Structure formats: C-alpha cells, structure tokens
Amino acid sequence: MSDIASVRIVRATERDVPLILQMIRDLAEYERMSDQVVATENGLREVLFGARPQAEVLLAYAGDRPAGFALFFHNFSTFVGRRGLYLEDLFVRPEFRGLGIGRRLLTELARTAVDRNCGRFEWSVLDWNEPAIGFYRKLGAEMMKEWRIFRLTGDALKQLAS
Q1: Which end of the chain is more exposed for a tag (fewer CB within 10 A), N or C?
Q2: 108-148 residue pLDDT tens
C-alpha cells in the first residue's frame, strides 16, 4: 500500500481519456448508477480537450497507480458577480481511501478556485453517502439545506424544448 508521500495530483491530458472514462465507470458503480453511464472516449475527448473545453480533470496517483479523479468546470453566480468552480465528480478508488487523496484533490481544487478568483467552490453529494457528507463537513463545507436540484432529461427535456 502506498503512503501519502507517494501521492501526486496531476492535470489530465488527452492521453488520459481512457482512464478518465474508467474512473467515471468506477464512480457510477460505487453510486449504484452504472446503467446511467453513456459517456464515450470520443465524447470525453471532445468536451475535455476539443476546441472549446467544457470541463477539466485532476488525476490522483498513489505511486504509479491511478487512485482517484476530480472532474470540474466553471459556473457563474449572479449574486457574487463572479464565476465559481463546480466539482461534478470526486472519486477515490476504495483500495486507496484513507491516504488523504480526497483531501488532496479538494485542496488542489480550492487552490484553483482561489487562483482563478472564483467566488464559490460547490458540489453535490448523494443524501445516502454519509462518509462523504461527514468528510466534507470536517473540511468546513456547509450543506445547502434550502436548495434542491431539478433536472430535465430525455423526453421531458425534448418536450420543453419544442
């Protein structure tokens, strides 16, 4: 098993797309949502590294072994009047948990948010994921109790668009 000294965080490059897709699949399995993954390598390559990248990825390695990832993008707060950083996915493979990798990824994201003059750093968490909720609270993050996420997909999205 690796120790925290051997952990490194790097920005993903286009050659990492297969690993990024595997990490997404690993996360989906953990979240009991494997049937919802429709992402492809070509699609990820375009949105992450194409002409107009829409998101960025950090990869965590324990030694030379891929241990986790964070996928993030910018949003905007009209109230703050500045962009924010939104963490879409954070995942550490089970065999690497307890090494501080999640904290290292979040620390790097917080640095990115500060360096880019973001007004906020936000993310969502599944309500059943008590270990993650506890971890985030220990970092000083607050759960937004008044807010609920709404989502349109599939036929409902197409119906509203027409």
Answers
A1: C
A2: 999 999 999 999 999 999 898 899 999 999 999 999 988 88
**Catalytic residue at 30?**
no
**What letter does residue 15 receive in the DSSP assignment?**
G
37: Cβ contacts below 8 Å, ≥ 6 apart = 24, 25, 28
Burial of 109 (0-12, 13-18, 19+ CB in 10 A): buried
Taking a C-beta distance cutoff of 8 angstroms, is the pair 60, 14 a contact?
no
Determine phi and psi for 137, rounding to 5 degrees: -65, -40
Tally of structural domains, the chain: 1
CATH number, residue 138: 3.40.630.30
d(CA 44, CA 50): 9
- How many helices and strands, by DSSP H and E, does the chain display? 5, 5
Q: Report yes or no on whether pTM surpasses 0.90.
A: yes
